Amino acid sequence: MPDQPVKCLVWDLDNTLWRGTLLEGDDLRLPDEVREVVTTLDARGILQSVASKNDHAPAWRQLERWGVAEYFLLPEIGWGPKSESVRRIADGLRFAYSAVAFVDDQPTERAEVAFHLPDVRCYTHDEVPGLPHRPEFTPLVVTEDARQRRRMYQANARRTAVRRDFTGPDQEFLRSLELRMRIDRATDRDLARVEELTRRTSQMNATGVHYSDAALRRLLADAGHEVLVTTLADRFGPHGAVGVVLVARKEGVWQVKLLATSCRVVQFGAGAVILNWLVDRAFAAGVHLVADFRPTERNRMMEIAYRFAGFTTDPCACTTVCDRPDEADTQHLHLVPTPRDAPGTIRVTATDLFPARGR
Ligand SMILES: [Zn+2]
Questions:
Q1: Where in the chain are the domains?
Q2: Given its phi and psi angles, is residue 157 left (phi above 0), alpha (psi -120 to 50 degrees) or beta?
Q3: Which of 24, 99, 267, 308 has a Cα at 20 to 30 A from 173?
Q4: Ligand 1 centroid, distance to 219 Cα (angstroms)
Q5: How far does the centroid of ligand 1 lie from the alpha carbon of residue 355, in Å?
Q6: Cα of 270 to ligand 1 centre, how many Å?
Q7: β-strands 331-335, 121-123: how paired?
Q8: 289 Cα: distance to centroid of ligand 1 (angstroms)
Q9: How far is the CA of 280 from the centre of ligand 1 (A)?
Q10: Buried b (16+ CB within 10 A) or exposed e, 254-283
Q11: DSSP bridge partners of 122
Q12: For the sheet containing 331-335, what is the strand order?
């Protein structure tokens, strides 16, 4: 499958990324067209790394001097076989070898990688300027999260390192992260990542329903519905889009048709924080809450979040005005909202979504 997208490109340095050979004391040069390939791929969400036979310190210093070191994750600069370097990079990023590409001017190095890792796609240095034009380096959609994928990865690495060394209680660690959540009305630009979230969040999806781009687009234009997107950040950097909420506003009741959060942020209790916020806003608006819930094999955690927030299966007259879900096994969970305290570990900012609305 030659067109399968490349998720990570691993670069050789001497006479591939730069012109010249470091060890021979050449006057090294980073061609503009190569720098442009690096920044272009980065902006498309394609991660990059280095596999080079050199001494680490001087090679890395050279990349820093040109201001491009930050583009390369998990660099492998040393004297081992390149196939092992590429393998460690792919494993470190948790990518299949088929999602990894390798570029090197030396035919023997390409052959060595291809022999041990036949799924890795290999390119010559001559092909570098053309890489951004190839389909495997051209994602169909580049979401906001893709654009900041490398920074999210780097933030996560720093976060994990601090977590490892943190000895206090969990709550204290969460507080030390200075987590900030934003809840905003989704726009056209958010649709791709909202759609992706509904597709990829099977554990934390309250109905298991996957909304297509077209369905979401219709709901964005529908004054009776709110499509909300949640993003999370902390002092290490962005977590990106982590949650989506779909609410139908009815007479006296808000029907939560979908609540899905990314598995990446379960540890921060993001789902519970979103629910807490929603319950508080519903109380302020004087409406009941009804949530569609359809048990799947994987979303028990979401049921626990609803139960924990106080939702029950008790009957209430308000459900008569709610839309009937398409799936017969969908339940209506119900709550008479009460005011909620702000969460202790995440600061929530929401634009004036509820209750006023002037459409
Ligand atoms: Zn009710």
A1: 8-140, 148-350
A2: alpha
A3: 308
A4: 24
A5: 17
A6: 25
A7: unpaired
A8: 7
A9: 15
A10: bbbbbbbbbebbbebbbbbbbbbbbbbbbb
A11: 102
A12: 331-335, 288-293, 253-261, 237-250, 225-234, 179-185, 346-350
Token pair 């799936």: residue = 327
> Going edge to edge, which strands form the sheet with 100-103?
76-78, 47-53, 8-11, 100-103, 121-123
Q: How far apart are CA 259 and CA 243, in angstroms?
A: 7
Give residue 264's pLDDT band: very low, low, confident or very high (50, 70, 90).
Answer: confident
* Residue 127 burial (CB count, 10 A): 11
Examine domains 8-140 and 148-350 and report if their fold is the same.
no
Amino acid letter, 176: S
Question: How far apart are the CA of 54 and the centre of ligand 1, in A?
Answer: 68
Q: Please tell me whether residue 207 adopts helix, strand or coil conformation.
A: coil
The highest-confidence range among 81-90, 241-250, 298-307, 317-326, by mean pLDDT, is 81-90
Ligand 1 center to 175 CA (angstroms)? 35
Contact 270, 259 (CB under 8 A): no
Architecture of domain 8-140: 3-Layer(aba) Sandwich (3.40)
Q: How far does the centroid of ligand 1 lie from the alpha carbon of residue 243, in Å?
A: 25
Compute the distance from residue 271 Cα to the ligand 1 centre, in Å: 22
DSSP state of 186: -
The percent of residues above 70 in pLDDT, for the chain, comes to 96
Note the pTM of the prediction, 2 decimals.
Answer: 0.79
What amino acid occupies position 338? T
Ligand 1 center–CA 263 separation, angstroms: 30
CA of 254 to the centre of ligand 1 (A): 9
289-294: average pLDDT: 93
285 alpha carbon – ligand 1 mean position (Å): 13
Q: Give the start-end residues of each E strand in the chain.
A: 8-11, 47-53, 76-78, 100-103, 121-123, 179-185, 225-234, 237-250, 253-261, 288-293, 331-335, 346-350
Look up the CATH superfamily of 148-350: Gcn5-related N-acetyltransferase (GNAT) (3.40.630.30)
Ligand 1 centroid to residue 251 C-alpha, Å: 11
Measured in angstroms, how far is the CA atom of residue 69 from the centroid of ligand 1?
57
Cβ neighbours of 229 (radius 10 Å): 22
